[in-house]
Task: structure prediction
Amino acid sequence: MCGLSEQEQESPEWEQILKGIEKLPYKILNCESSYKSETSVIDDPPFRIVKELGISAPCNRSVVYFSRHGESEYNVQDRIGGNPKLTPRGILYARSLAQYFAGNCDIQIWTSTLFRTIMTASYVKSSFTREKTNLLNELHSGYFDGLTYREIEEKFPLESLNRKNDKLRYQYPGGESYLDCCTRLEPFITTLEKYRAPVKGGGGGNSINPPLLIVSHQAALRCIFGYLLNLTSDKIPYIVIPQHTIIKVTYMDGHNILEYIRMPVEHVENGVSMNKMKE
Result:
């Protein structure tokens, strides 16, 4: 078990971490959009919203960094949903993330409203006020929130089978499907593309917004990368978003160029230890 013990959670160091996070300047990311989806079933390729709103193409060389949160207690326990804290290895990844961006305070930071993403980004220094939005939250697991996949399979075998047969459209009871998550993210995609679009300068020329770091969750990032890579919606639930990895996306000549920067921090994926140092 790699979660924090009660003794560790009561330690002065842990209390200082929590107090530091609470003091970070945050505001709610404004993702208002005039676009209204008429259906929860998104056409292929997904996210036609940007074209329909007539948003300018991103600037060449505009850069956005994406990351999943560091290893959480639920990752170790193979549980879904919830609002768990990071494990010590998750904290180590958060510090590695900060080290990667050290010396570059000119970076904007967006996270979900859940503790594990906020904590992951908390060590990264930024001269901007951090922004958070529940649009970036993990796929809502409804009544199954906090259960392990094994518990779901044993207690609700039909639900488990339905999910395996159609992972894209399967909706957790009282929760979301991947298509629901994509629909939820439409206003965020609009905001992201506006951020990546050219900024008109005072002298009439265009400039580029500062680099952007987005810390979110596996399902939400799968939906976002489905859009960025122009994939059909049936591929979205299977996009690989490795943990403890920074994904750098640079827009060049009509294409999003991806670079994966893996941090040498071991973690657990679906209950299985993944030693990034040995890959």
Residues 44-136+179-242 form a domain with the Rossmann fold fold (CATH 3.40.50.1240). Residues 189 and 204 are 27 Å apart (CA to CA).
